[in-house]
Amino acid sequence: MQHYLNYVNGQWRDASRQLEVINPATDKVFATIARASIEDADAAMEAAQRCVNSGALTDVRPVKRAAWMLKAAEAIREIAEEGALILCRENGKNLDTAREEFDEAARLFEYYGGMTDKIEGVSIPLGKDYVDFTQYIPMGISVQIIPWNFPVSICARSLAPALAAGNAVVIKSPEVSPLAISLLIKALEKAGFPQGAINLLCGKGSEVGTHLVKHHDTNHIVFTGSVATGQRILKDAAERAIPSVMELGGKSAAIAFADVDIEQLLRSVKIGVFYNSGQVCSAMSRLLVHRSRYEEVKKAVVQLAESLTVGIGENHAELTPVVSRNHRQQILTMVDNAREEGANVLTGGKAADLEGYFVLPTIIEASADMSIAQEEVFGPVMVIMPFDDEDQAVAIANGTEYGLVAGVFGENLNQTLRVANRLIAGQVFINEWFASGVETPFGGVGLSGFGREKGQEAIYSYVQTRNIGIRLKHSV
Ligand code: NAD
Questions:
Q1: Sign of torsion, CA 371 374 377 383?
Q2: Which of 154, 337, 348, 358 has its CA at a distance of 20 to 30 angstroms from the CA of residue 47?
Q3: 379 CB under 6 A from ligand 1?
């Protein structure tokens, strides 16, 4: 059985305790990983601090960092196939989805590699006696806490801009599904980043995660995960006023108008809610349909759910297991509660009769105020409901505490754009769920968090502004 290690100060490091990694498709342990201790976390922070103090990341021409970043992208592509297979085994996800994660990771390093020498300040006019300008300088040590659902691409989406801007990074990988991140970091070893610039720890959130957040040398926190954990981290971060990026959960709605192209909508439903078995923060977890098309769309969506191939990720099944036994139980409990509240489970709503942690594709007819229509499920579960007019659709879509993404489907661009302008969300898709890329800013409002990842804008979450004002002496 393969054993994976932590990466501290440029060295792979074992620990006295270990965590077991289970394949969600077989319910069997297939690898172990060193479980980082508080001492490992301190060593990682010291290494990062030495790297920051040495100036190895910041005293070079920015184009040097670009070279490291581009080499990193190349190295990620070289190990992508091996990494995708491990990701598929530890996470349960479809092999193609796992490949996409490595591809996105490489793209992120290319994209932010291109930005290292374009993080430009401005000159501010203060009159003839002064020269004034701003600089964007790195935060220092960025602590990055990663969830299990897209461990590789989410790790890269925070790591790449942090390094591009000249920060040293300490990553806390998720205790479920930590292996593929190790491969990602192995690839980055070849890129030439200075010693201590990248450190990786796999440990318990409540132990190592909290310790890193509270550490006196932490200058910046990027957290991607659940609302409850994000809130706890924010309280700890507040003690030392540490700037944070919070990428939390969602309960995102798609609105389908009477003139919706149903085939286009179904393609979006398929990826919107069943991609990665619905374990996507920006999943289309609610579908609101104009009453005139409601029955037709409902029937088509149920047919779609029932047509999906259910199986293991390595066989490219469309619906793969969820990440853990516990998580499956949480999903099924939420569906049971929905039934008790009076929601109508149109299809699915139970485990598949297969080895592994499968939840059948589930469509639930519910009203907007029911818990299943308000709370994040994080599984292959979509709520569907009718609406009568634009105002009602907007009110329902905006009627949760989240605000990550939203979608509008219809042929009338005036209407879709008008409604998009009224949706409270960090990103709105018109006529294609996930119409976006590494180039487009992503992040939430409300309980979905704050700060933006991806796109040029994200780089400004990884720097701080320093203003320099100069008083000139004039000769008389
Ligand atoms: P989680 O909050 O349970 O864990 C996320 C990470 O936080 C893990 O690495 C965990 O070890 C660590 N952690 C746990 N307690 C901690 C503590 N007290 N201090 C520091 N770290 C701690 O979330 P999860 O179950 O891994 O991920 C699922 C959640 O993540 C969902 O709610 C989903 O919507 C959200 N998510 C959001 C985005 C986004 O970009 N907005 C992306 C992916 C996932």
A1: positive
A2: 154
A3: no
